[in-house]
Each structure stands twice: as structure tokens, then as C-alpha cells.
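QA checklist item 7 of 12: single-chain prediction sanity check.
[x] sequence parsed
[x] length recorded as 325
[x] structure emitted
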Amino acid sequence: MQAWQVHENGEPSEVMRLEEVERPTPGDGQVLLRVRAANVNFPDALLCRGQYQVRPPLPFTPGVEICGETEDGRRVIANPALPHGGFAEYVVADAGAVLPAPDALDDAEAAALHIGYQTGWFGLHRRAHLQAGETLLVHAAAGGVGSAAVQLGKAAGATVVGVVGGAGKAAVARELGCDVVIDRHTEDVVTAVKEATGGRGADVVYDPVGGAAYAQSAKTVAFEGRIVVVGFASGTIPSPALNHALVKNYAILGLHWGLYNTKNPKLIQHCHEQLTELAAQGAIKPLVSERVPLSAAASAVQRVADGTTTGRIAVLPAPGNGATA
């Protein structure tokens, strides 16, 4: 089968190579899946760079979430078991963690439902306890992780303020349902959030960016607000001033979604049921901005790494499934 292989760490476009390899063999408790669609995530770039918390042995195939097909024809979503990642024709996955793909979503949308939306649901509901009527501030609102949080925030009845970089991404954020969109390239984020909230600030801040975005979060979070730390796409891990959290009465909440796989896997199943229902209602629908063939996976991962994309890019290995070069 064909699969992208990383033999040394570096930038995705430089170290990912499309090769002919042996089909992976499932181990105990695993299943073989034919890949119908693989979603590109920022962690795929970190894996290539050797900067992710999980470091599979070289060579490995990146691709951390897919929509696949079981040997008996069931359509499922799964996190492939590394080092056999999703940018390939076949993967293996832990049988107990395979979830049914929602009927309301096509393959590319289903592949994009898992990590980003589970992270959003856990962050907004399990950690921050977002309530209807509250204000939610989402950084990188047009990106893959941010767009999921925007849709989930609207579905929960929140007023959503989205921060983006550039006019094109601002248009996408409006289409996603943001009530207020702030272009950080042309506006002062802190001032704009204060104006949008009548000086009160945001009840919940969803931050997958870190760096300067976190500094803005601390300045714009409301009294008794909650900042959900999801990741550091900026490449800079901030050092929070805890005295500031003390004098302003806000909470800093960390979220590593992957821990629930081992700490409380039943919650992942429950979350998937909630997401499936929301998808059936049309309340959420992953924004898939591009569908590309397997041959274009490396360039897709690089563009996600560079922050130039909106929504999700889906890699579709099988011929005749709607991929465009």
C-alpha cells in the first residue's frame, strides 16, 4: 500500500515521503481499517518536527484521525495506532476506541469531527462549564480547532467572539456563526473585546494559540471567567502571572483531551453521542475547506503548520472520492 513516511524530523514538506510499504498487521485488541478520509491536524506537523508529546519510532506515518471502513463494511472514526498513521491507505486502531461515523456527515466531515470537536466539547462543557447567555472568546476562530469551538459555543447558546488573522479568515468566522469577529491584523484585540462586551470581558476564553493570544486572554477574561488552555499553535508557551489570576478571580484550565482515553474513556463515548446528535440536528458541521488526494498530504500538513488554512483539510486516499489536486 501507499503511505507517507517520516524518516527524520523536520518540516513536513521536507521530511514526509510517499512510499510503498507493507499493510500494517493488527495486534491484540486492534482492527485493520481502510482509510476513507484522514483529517490534517496541527499535531501532525509537531509529529514531523519531533515536538509532539508522543514520539513514535522512525520511520512513522503521521495522521492522527481518520474516517475508515472496517473489514465488514462499517464506516467508523478512529485515531490510528502510531507509527501507522492516517496518511496511508490502511491503518490499525484500537478496537475499543473505534466510534461509529455519524450518518449526517460525509467521510471528510466525519474524519474532522473527532479530535477538534471532542476537545471543544470537553473544554467548553467538562472544564469551563459554559452556560447559555455567556460570552465565549475563541482565538484562531477560523482554524480547525477554533471553528469547532465556535460551532459548539453557538450550539450551547453562548455569544461567540472570534479572533482571526486576516480578512479572509474573518469572512469564514462570520459564516461559522461568530456574533463578533476581531481581525488581529487590523484591530487591537483587547480593546475590541472590551467594546464588544461592554467592558465586562469574556466569561470563557478558548485558546489553542498561546503566546501573545494568552496575554490577550488574561486581559480580556471577565470576573470569575475561565481561560481554557488547549494548545500552543503560536509555538510560544506562556508563563501565566498567577498574581493576576488571583486579583482578577479567574481560572486557568488545562485540557489534554488524549488523557481521557486512559483516565475516563466512557466520557469520550458520551461526548461522541452528544456530537452525533448535534450533527444530526445540523447544529455542528465540520468546516472542510479542502479535500485533497493522498499525493498532496505533505503540502497540506505544511500549510496547516504555517497557519495559512481555514477549517480542515481532508486527505482522501481512495480514487474517485471527490479529492481535488
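[x] summary fact logged: Residues 265-281 form the longest helix (17 residues).
[ ] second reviewer sign-off
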